[in-house]
Amino acid sequence: MAQVVIIGGGYGGILTAIRLSRRQNKAQITLINPRDHFVERIRLHQTAVGTKPRRLSIPEMLRGTGVHFQQGWVTEIRPDHKTLCVNTDQGVITLPFDYLVYALGSQTRRDQVPGVEQYAFSLDLHSVEGLKPALTQLGTQAGRVLIVGGGLSGIEASAEIAERYPALKVELITQGELGSNLSPEGRNYLRQTLTQMGVGLREHLKISRVEAQQIITVSGETLPYDLLLWTAGFNFSPLAQSAGIKVNGLGQIIVDPELRSVSHPFIYGVGDAACVLLPSGRAQRLACATAMPIAAHAADNLAASIARQTPRALAFSYTLICISLGRRKGLVQWVKGDDSPTSRITTGFKAAVIKELICRYTILSFYLARRFGGFYLWSQPKPQSGFAPAIR
Ligand SMILES: Cc1cc2nc3c(=O)[nH]c(=O)nc-3n(C[C@H](O)[C@H](O)[C@H](O)COP(=O)(O)OP(=O)(O)OC[C@H]3O[C@@H](n4cnc5c(N)ncnc54)[C@H](O)[C@@H]3O)c2cc1C
Question: Which atom of ligand 1 is nearest the CA belonging to 106?
Answer without folding.
Answer: 30
